[in-house]
Amino acid sequence: MSAAPDPAPPADAAPSGRGETLLEAAAAHVPDRPDLLIRLAREARAAAEAEGDERTAAQAEGYEGFGLYLTSDHEAALDHLTRALAALEPLGDLAGRSLVLGALASVHVSLGHYDEAAAIALENLRTARALGDREREAWVLTIMGNTYVELGQPAEATERGEAALRLFADLGNAGGQARAHTVLGGALRDLGRYDEAKAHLEAALRLATEEGATLTEARALDDLGWLAQSRGDPAGSLDFHRRALALREAIGNRQAQATSLIHLGRAYTALGQADEAVGVLEQALAIAAETGAEPRAAQAHEALADAYERSGRPAQALRHLRAYSRLREALLSAQARSRIQTLEVRAEAERAHQDAEIARLRTEELGAANAELERTLVDLRAAQRGLVQAEKLASLGRLSAGLAHEIQNPLNFVANFAELNAELASELRARVDAGDLDGLGDDLDTVADNAARVRDHARRADGIVRSLMGHVRDVGGKRRPADLHELLEQAVSSVFRDAEAAPSGGAVRVERHYADGLGPVEVAPGSLQRVFVNLLDNARYALAHRPAPPDGEAEPPTVTISTERYPGGVEIRVADNGVGIPLAHCARVFEPFFTTKPTGQGTGLGLSLAYDIVTGGHGGTLGVVSREGEGATFTVTLPTGEGEGCRE
């Protein structure tokens, strides 16, 4: 439930033109009058452009973007903020750039791009310290604290909140102190230190009310309501959330309204008022969908699943639980990818800087120092590659652990249906003993239906956990010489043992084009066979879902397996004439948890695991060539260490 802080207006000289005057007026309405902020920022930009004042025009566009963020128009906000940042960069306006970076970080928090927000905030913190602007530094620390609260890292959030509070106190900024108190209140609540959290949130409410900081006042009220709920007092939380909602509606911050509605719904659910809970939660879900705030949509689905389950409507509960799981998987996967990409970009930037330094030393003919730096660069690059790989594995581990935690919800359904069956069985026993057999068949049907639900939920949970645990295991294994053709035949037998028929007609045909004299290759047989099974199973699925062509025109569903030796390695190809892969998906097929299969038919881990086994476990490559509707070809290369040379 983070929101952007109240940023200070540019600390520049007195306005010299109409554009600057309007911009100063716009800054006075941050953040409690976003409508007026947007209008004045647009007028300031038009005036500055007419006056040829590029700097003011760019800053005004940044303020307009911030106002759009406050009204939860995230797409438009990102567009304006990105353009403002690009315009300010060549002007060397660090102060204006810092304001835009702060707003960008807040937008990314709202959209669930937490690692991106953290990276931007870190960059902004360096800028604020370079400027010597302690107030700006405090606001950046507040944004970072809010981000860590959203990420579920309360210890880091506490550290940033305390640092921001100290700075605001030294500066005598009461509004900033109020915002820092909300960060500390949220973090301490998550740590279970409820009394300390309450003290900070009450201080935030008092200071915000005195300063007329409506956005911060609403945040403090909402967090106090959430704290009351956490302490088992849902009735006490209702008043706080209603007051927060009223303030947020007055400001026009749609995403913050969704947050208040979600908390109200949870309080109603805890009080047993299911109809009221469903009503406000459906409103929250509609707002979240409208504003593109996926973290809030996930929370609304989760709360609706709980409300429907408690009201005895398991079908509706299950529908929302599935929607929650899909969104949660997407958010966690996006976080992991964002984290990996950020690390790789930083490593690339560091390498570029080091290369430039080497060039400078060469120009100055410092041969000895240059040789030493080159050796250091080799070591650094090796360390960076190790860090990137370690971060990828760590991100995947965190992602797997988070998703495994989400399995608790379907397991709750298993427990509930099992408990219902136990109670019903006891009742049936009593009726049978009493000779009352009326309606016995209907009750037995209910028992069977509940048992089927238990089985389905348990199988789904078991399948996901098995896939996750298989993915985080070591992708290597003990190597020994193995016959690749034998491993391929075992995989074919495993996948096509039943000779499944494709909808287009006819059983799947498997063609082999094996190279003569391939000989044994030193591999980890168990791991590599998993690769072949995953690739063949992917081909089987593609064949089973290709559209049925007109009679007499269909090429039979075919999988073609070929092997080839080349100097220094071997190549294995698995091709099919199935549905193919859309161009937009080709770059993502090896990402963990990316899948186009319906819910329940795949976790998106098979090809990702195959990629890690081939590249990380065997030092080879795995790639794909495909065109939608024309099949796909997956190519595996494995080094053998024999001979030298290049492939044709």
From TrEMBL:
Top-rank lineage group of the source organism: Bacteria
Keyword Iron annotated: no
Catalyses which reaction(s): ATP + protein L-histidine = ADP + protein N-phospho-L-histidine
TPR repeat positions: 178-211, 258-291
Residue ranges, annotated region (Disordered): 1-22
Enzyme class: transferase
Keyword Transmembrane: no
Ranges where the Histidine kinase domain occurs: 402-642
PANTHER family, per database record: SENSOR HISTIDINE KINASE, TWO-COMPONENT SENSOR PPRA
EC number: 2.7.13.3
Compositionally biased residues, Pro residues: 1-12
Protein name (database record): histidine kinase
Key words of the record: TPR repeat
SUPFAM superfamilies, sorted: ATPase domain of HSP90 chaperone/DNA topoisomerase II/histidine kinase, Homodimeric domain of signal transducing histidine kinase, TPR-like
Listed Pfam families: HATPase_c, TPR_12
The organism of origin for this protein: Rubrivirga litoralis
